[in-house]
């Protein structure tokens, strides 16, 4: 094949993309700023583990790596909601056996993908950072961080998977080829480890993503294969009585946990030490357009459309990007056409998941506490049983139905939310809901979902 394809970034997206390209016979060179995580222990970056769902799995299947990834996965069938009083409540995500999410270590997943991509022929250049691009001369600048040398590569078929702070996106904006805006949430996050028990087993119930919703803030925890859980505390950066700024004084974090998360405090003996040592992370949505510079460069994954993490979809969406681009490799004749079609195909869907991810934050930290939320979830599952081709809960469409585009999930979800609101007004249990008019409205307003490939 012609010129090598250059991938910038070896995080979630880059290695999977490289693998897919190599399987199609392309020569691929990947440049990653960090060291090779298979050889050196890297400091824990952002989010130690992630939720993998259907869209991500579909792309991993396409790349032939699902079996290699499977041993890394810890299934989660629903949310375990820990209110301040009473027993934890389990709210299942879906009703079919395959409707579950998987917690996966970001580092382990990355190692598997890098190994598979390397075995398929991708040449990895770790500790090499993109420093910019000159679109007039058609060069992308790379710095070898070990040798301290800079060199240039032709700016032809460059795929920028260099994350939300993308150097290539900045170069495109600097050259007047794109516009970009990053909206940072007023909330931040900090990760803490809930250790395994003395017997080496998980100290919280397995099979669930745990949530401690407290209105303006929340704690969540995802299981790891080694018996630990990674907990993430989400708080406003500043302002109000509970914020990262207000927790700065010694002892303040412990007092928050004593009041709001006593069950977790009992499991984390070194809370203060972890709280002091672990960084506070920001969360942003990136809006950029266009994502491509002719056939020379394409932004993909977070570099194009980073989203906030509350739907657990950033990586899944980036993997779906890889699947879509792989389909275009088979059907579109040249890079310019592939990049332009990719941009056209993915724009509406990624905008939809960006909005749904922001909305989901309110649901996770607040709405989930409301008894009407549990009733609506129960009713949704009942309606899905009765009308599986018309009514699928929005959460399920996003997480379990890779054949339903995000924008379609958002559109149908809005109709469903209105119907659920109307039907549950004044109701406290499923038996109170008048099903006949609701089912008539579903038939009238929600067209059957076409089966995949129809
Ligand atoms: C707290 C948190 C929790 C999350 N949870 C989930 C979840 O449960 N499920 C989910 O699907 N998504 C989740 N996400 C989102 C997910 O992490 C991202 O969407 C995903 O990592 C995007 O992959 P990427 O490859 O585009 O970017 P990244 O994974 O950020 O990879 C970018 C890579 O590029 C490298 N790089 C950066 N600059 C340069 C440069 N100049 N030159 C060369 N290399 C460079 C970086 O070192 C990095 O390796 C979460 C995010 C956060 C912050």
Descriptive report:
The mean pLDDT is 95. This protein has 454 residues and is of the alpha/beta class. The two termini are 34 Å apart. The protein is built from 15 helices and 18 strands. 38% of the residues lie in helices and 24% in strands. Bound molecules: flavin-adenine dinucleotide. Flavin-adenine dinucleotide binds next to helix 1, strand 2, strand 3, strand 8 and strand 16.
Question: What would the keywords be for this entry?
Answer:
454 residues, alpha/beta, FAD/NAD(P)-binding domain, Alpha-Beta Plaits, 9-stranded mixed β-sheet, 6-stranded mixed β-sheet, 15 helices, 18 strands, 38% helix, globular, binds flavin-adenine dinucleotide
| Poorly predicted spans | none
Residues in helix, %: 25-40%
Largest sheet: 9 strands, mixed
Q: What is the structural class? A: alpha/beta
Label the overall shape: globular
The CATH H-level superfamily of the largest domain is FAD/NAD(P)-binding domain
Cα(first) to Cα(last) distance is: 34 Å
Provide the CATH topology of the largest domain: FAD/NAD(P)-binding domain
């Amino acid at each position: 094949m012609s010129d090598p394809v250059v991938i910038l970034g070896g995080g979630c997206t880059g290695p999977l993309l490289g693998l897919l390209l190599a399987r199609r016979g392309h020569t691929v060179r990947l440049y990653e700023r960090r060291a090779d995580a298979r050889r050196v222990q890297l400091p824990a970056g952002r989010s130690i583990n992630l939720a993998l769902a259907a869209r991500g799995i579909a792309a991993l299947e396409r790349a032939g790596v699902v079996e290699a990834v499977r041993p890394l996965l810890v299934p989660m069938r629903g949310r375990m909601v820990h209110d301040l009083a009473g027993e934890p409540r389990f709210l299942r995500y879906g009703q079919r056996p395959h409707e579950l999410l998987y917690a996966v270590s970001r580092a382990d997943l990355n190692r598997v993908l890098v190994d598979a991509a390397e075995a398929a022929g991708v040449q990895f250049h770790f500790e090499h950072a993109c420093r910019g691009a000159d679109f007039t001369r058609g060069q992308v600048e790379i710095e070898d961080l070990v040798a301290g040398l800079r060199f240039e590569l032709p700016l032809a078929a460059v795929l920028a998977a260099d994350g939300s702070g993308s150097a290539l996106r900045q170069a495109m904006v600097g050259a007047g080829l794109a516009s970009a805006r990053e909206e940072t949430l007023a909330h931040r996050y900090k990760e803490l480890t809930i250790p395994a028990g003395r017997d080496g087993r998980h100290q919280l119930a397995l099979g669930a993503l745990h949530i401690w919703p407290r209105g303006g803030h929340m704690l969540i925890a995802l299981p790891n294969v080694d018996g630990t859980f990674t907990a993430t505390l989400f708080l406003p950066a500043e302002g109000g009585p509970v914020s990262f700024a207000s927790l700065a004084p010694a002892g303040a974090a412990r007092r928050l946990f004593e009041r709001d998360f006593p069950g977790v405090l009992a499991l984390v003996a070194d809370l203060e030490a972890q709280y002091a040592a672990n960084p506070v992370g920001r969360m942003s949505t990136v809006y950029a357009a266009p994502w491509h510079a002719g056939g020379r460069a394409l932004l993909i994954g977070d570099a194009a459309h980073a989203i906030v993490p509350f739907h657990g979809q950033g990586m899944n969406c980036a993997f779906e990007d890889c699947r879509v681009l792989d389909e275009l490799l088979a059907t579109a004749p040249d890079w310019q056409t592939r990049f332009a079609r990719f941009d056209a195909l993915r724009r509406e869907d990624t905008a939809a998941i960006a909005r749904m991810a922001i909305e989901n934050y309110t649901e996770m930290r607040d709405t989930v506490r409301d008894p009407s939320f549990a009733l609506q979830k129960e009713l949704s599952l009942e309606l899905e049983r009765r009308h599986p081709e018309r009514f699928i809960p929005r959460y399920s469409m996003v997480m379990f139905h890779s054949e339903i585009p995000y924008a379609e999930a958002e559109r149908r979800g809005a109709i469903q939310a209105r119907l659920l609101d109307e039907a549950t007004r004044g109701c406290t249990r499923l038996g109170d809901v008048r099903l006949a008019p609701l089912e008539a409205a579903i038939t009238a307003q929600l067209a059957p979902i076409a089966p995949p490939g129809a």
